[in-house]
Design goal:
alpha/beta, eight-stranded parallel beta barrel, 25 strands, glycosidase, GH13_cat_dom
Length: 695
Amino acid sequence: MVSIDPLAPLSPAPSLLSPHLDDLGVTQGPDGGTLRVWSAHAEAIELVLFDRDDIDWIVATASLLPEGGGVWAVTTPLLHPGARYALRVDGPSGPGNVFNSATLLTDPYARGIIGSGLEDWRCVVIDGGFDWGGVTKPGIPLDGTVIYEGHVKGLTKRHPRIPTALHGTYAGLAHPAMIEHLLSLGVTSVELLPIHAFASEPRLLQHGLSNYWGYNTVNFFSPHAAYATAEAQRQGPEAVLREVKGMVRLLHEAGIEVLLDVVYNHTAEEGIGGPRSSLRGIDNRSYYRQQDDGTYIDVTGCGNSVNTSTDAAARLVLDSLRYWAREVQIDGFRFDLAATLGRDAGHAFTPDHPLLQAITDDPMLADVKKIAEPWDVGMGGWQTGNFTPGWQEWNDRYRDRVRNFWLSDIDYARRASTPPVGIGGFATRLAGSSNTFSEERGPLASVNFVTAHDGFTLRDLVSYDVKHNFGNGEQNRDGADTNRSFNHGAEGRTDDEAILATRRRAMRNLLGTLLLSAGIPMLTAGDEFGRTQRGNNNAYCHDSPLTWLSWEHAPWQEDLLAHVQTLTRLRRENPALRPIRFARLGERIPSASVMEWYDENGHTMSPDRWTDPGHRTLQYVAASTPENEPFNRVLLIVHGVEHPTTVALPELDEAERLVSLWSSADENPAAHHGLFEPGDELEIPSTSMRLFRVE
């Protein structure tokens, strides 16, 4: 427990928490529903109500009256659960203002929306009642967390054991067949690509494509209806929300957390001239970052950037998070382009931005995981390691170093006979990235990943040297050009068994590194059985079998799955692999792992060995400092060159034997691992890893 000095001055609450911003949207009371909308520059706001069955038939209107502080309100019995409504907002013309009193706009706080396209939306008043049956959040500790990033539709669209009616739906994700897979895989937390209501960009629709990933938000409170079953969609937004909550409840019953990838940095309204569906028409000047002349400051690359330096925009984000965390029982959030949320009124990133601090300090969000994608595309946009305690971050430095070590360095060595760098940088990432994250934050600030939805799949990473994105309609200009990938001798598909075997071992090395590193691992859905997108590293616009997981697997894919299952189990069983804190030389730090480093001869690593590209063999010993679990010590051998070597196991204090637990050289995880003694010599195959428990 943290002690608080009662005489210490209290920090003032950020202005975004001002009470005048409470209860925006529709709330129910004895006189009906009250709608409260914020707009600092509006001159008039009108509520427009529609027929339940014909959303083009206006049945009533009512004027909102100013309450002060930019808030407008109206109370009417017509705003009952199920009511369809929209807003009309009028205001001044001039730079930064784009009011149009004829445009129908959505309430930013609407809990349900219906419609289609980019501008033809109606809000729906939601009751939101749901029986959670006593089911609570699993509360997985950070050191025990293994994240599985996936897409609601893509995970289940082709699953043969899930009924067709549930394919690609929230309900399908909670089907016993899917839960069985998640539990057998050993993941603890499913991180879903965006499920906030979103729309496809006009440019994609013109090419016959769609926004599959969902990073084009229409509303921050409403779930995306197209992921619900046909029956729930027919019944309307209330039923869609119940299906989402039902999915969360069933996953929680199985002990699995639900994390959401949330996109608060921009909206589907794009740049000026794009759709005017909500924030732009309500108060463009306040909600979007812009120059004095109204020109947008786009640090997201998506046409607009939400201006979280204004209290109302920041509060909108905070209130949305509170809603999903409390009403929908979501366990955590991954913040897309989180650096944008931390930009101040001068558009510069600041780690102590009022919104970022409010998110970490809010009691309503105390039990949720907060994961930043710590960059955007604006000036000063790369901020990995710069968020404050309470945040975890996607660690792109980890991704790049691990890919380099196992892939691009090996490619280089084939052409130049020696890899370009030694093993030191890789070892730093393996041990928790202490050169990126402060001692105060520790290794669990790092969300480690090798692949994600954005980029090559694991299989494509070892099968392609370059991207193949011609199907995206942009002449292969989109997607990252620097992938640190290696095709191992043939681009894409091949029947060469030697190349295929080397690729499989490379995948096992990448997965082994990911799941045995200090930090929080994130596995991308489908990588556990080596799915491919045929070299497309930016498949955001393909809602097709290219992006849907296939559940029919060749024997080698089942072997790869068995490796992942083994690795997650070993991570769970060996706390030395998942330290909570960084160790300090000569001190006993609870829940840290004391690390020792040896070369292939069993000798302590000398300084020159860390950087010598001719010596890329390392023996890494991690010993836990027990706090809540029994003492544990492991040895991991990493061999990063394409020729076998002989390794002498180090003479470790108080070690009687070493139990072999896993080897990336095995096509299938060995059932019998073998026992060894300190000082024994082992033959280590080309580019491989081997894990032991020290007893």
